[in-house]
Specification:
By secondary structure, the chain is α+β, with helices and mostly antiparallel strands. The chain has helices spanning 7-20, 67-70, 109-123, 163-174; strands at residues 25-29, 36-41, 44-49, 61-66, 73-80, 83-90, 93-101, 130-137. The protein is built from 4 helices and 8 strands; from the N terminus they run αββββαβββαβα. InterPro entries: Endo/exonu/phosph_ase_sf, Swc5/CFDP1/2.
């Protein structure tokens, strides 16, 4: 969910929506929160990764977990205002959750390249027995061309493609990540 800033005033509404829809994990981007922290609100624990306190509020990424999912957290890292990861063990399933907020296409190519390099570096932390889940705002359009991406990309979508979308598909292909939603 891209919250476009003002997360402090929206947190009640977001947690209420999570409760109503029975959502256990929610990635949020463009929080514009400062610093890195873990906070609890009602039955939800929030992991925030933002800019330094001395900087102007911008970027920011977070993950909100229900009590049940938060009890499964084994490890986490606030990587940057654009990336954070959480390692969970839910029953017998080990999960590596990466939440991202990619720089948009108006940012210089070097900034975008550095972001995708960071994503690749983080992915090396994944263990063989972990399921990888990528969530967030990748500011990308992946298109509908499936040649070579049949396992990574669903059948339906927008025809548009941009460099961030291509980079996302490349990461998915490199890590053998699959579209786990059945096409119907």
């Amino acid at each position: 969910m891209n919250v476009c800033g003002g997360m402090n005033s929206k947190i009640d509404e977001v947690c209420e929506m999570m409760s109503e829809r029975r959502i256990d994990v929610l990635g949020v981007s463009e929080t514009k929160k400062k610093g890195c922290s873990i906070t609890t609100y009602d039955r939800y624990t929030r992991y925030w990764s933002g800019v330094n306190d001395s900087e102007r509020s911008s970027q920011g990424v977070g993950v909100i977990l229900s009590e049940r999912m938060n009890a499964s957290v084994k490890e986490f890292e606030f990587v940057s205002p654009r990336l954070l990861w959480i390692r969970l063990k839910v029953g017998l399933t080990r999960i590596f959750l990466l939440c991202a907020y990619a720089p948009d296409m108006s940012k210089p190519p070097k900034v975008r390249e550095d972001f995708w390099d960071s994503v690749r570096e983080i992915m090396t932390k994944c263990k063989e027995n972990e399921r990888i889940i990528l969530i967030g705002d990748f500011n990308g359009w992946v298109g509908i061309r499936r040649d070579g991406y049949e396992r990574n990309l669903g059948m339906f979508g927008d025809k548009r493609v941009n460099e961030n979308g291509e980079s996302l598909l490349e990461v998915c292909l490199e890590r053998n990540l699959v579209n786990d939603i059945a096409d119907s």
